[in-house]
Design a protein that fits this description.
Elements: E1 8-10, E2 20-25, E3 33-37, E4 42-47, H1 53-62, H2 64-72, E5 85-88, E6 91-97, E7 105-107, E8 112-115, H3 120-149, E9 155-159, E10 166-169, E11 174-178, H4 186-198, H5 207-217, H6 221-236
Parallel strand pairs: 2-4, 6-8, 9-11
Antiparallel strand pairs: 1-2, 3-4, 5-6, 7-8, 10-11
Length: 239
């Protein structure tokens, strides 16, 4: 059977009601891989070419138990509402409501986010504050790593990607980050900026690329593991 980029199919060859596989072609991928998209509740099968999807699907089906277990424990969505405790730069922050329609702001030495509005309006104001915090921090860390590599400035944007933490387009010198990384500890945020800036030097994930990342942040493996282990919980916030 020929598979297509973006196609979805059941993990179970019999077409049961179990987990779904989403097929993805990434020319920069150096091998077949399977990852869990906690937000979408499905497994993503990645191959460097569309032709390689057949082998990638077969590989994913050998990992059926692992996929089912990971999806079974994926984080439950948590709305941004008064009383909720979220993380900001790895530290717990409590959300509080205040009267009126004022914008969200950090108070009590950064341990509380207080905002006006109710329901969706409250959540939107809190999210806007988190995006502003993300932009400020990521601009700073991006500039730091650009200077370390002798690179020219880039255009930085903040988005809410479905599962990716960042992306870099070397040809037009743009970097996009997920605002959600602002909830991670500072070393993880710094690693993400280094990861994307390093793509200006090497667009792939070759050993040469990872050597650039290591020059910027040292041993990057703990930060990558943190995102694998806890990233799903960040993607669940505010859903």
């Amino acid at each position: 059977m020929a598979y297509r980029n973006g196609q979805r199919l059941p993990l179970d060859e019999g077409g049961g009601s179990g987990p779904t596989l989403r097929l993805s072609v990434n020319p920069r991928a150096r091998r077949l891989s399977v990852r869990i998209d906690a937000r979408a509740g499905e497994a993503v099968v990645v191959a460097p070419t569309e032709r390689g999807l057949t082998q990638a699907v077969a590989f994913a089906r050998t990992k059926g138990v692992w996929i089912s277990e990971r999806l079974a424990v994926r984080p439950v969505s948590r709305p941004l509402e008064p009383g909720q405790v979220i993380s900001l730069r790895g530290r717990p922050v409590r959300l509080e409501a205040t009267s009126g329609a004022g914008a969200a702001r950090l108070v009590e030495e950064g341990t509380v986010i207080r905002s006006g509005g109710e329901g969706e309006a409250f959540a939107r104001r809190v999210e806007n504050l988190l995006k502003r915090e993300a932009r400020e921090t990521l601009l700073d860390r991006t500039d730091h790593h650009l200077r370390a590599l002798g690179q020219r400035p880039v255009k930085v944007s903040i988005a809410d990607a479905r599962s990716r933490w960042g992306s870099c387009s070397p040809h037009n010198r743009t970097i996009r980050y997920s605002w959600r990384v602002i909830m991670a500890p500072p070393p993880v945020i710094d690693y993400l900026a280094a990861h994307e800036v390093a793509h200006l030097v090497h667009a792939d994930h070759s050993p040469a690329y990872w050597s650039v990342v290591a020059r910027l942040v040292g041993d990057h493996r703990p930060y990558r593991k943190w995102l694998r282990d806890y990233g799903g919980a960040l993607h669940a916030v505010g859903r």
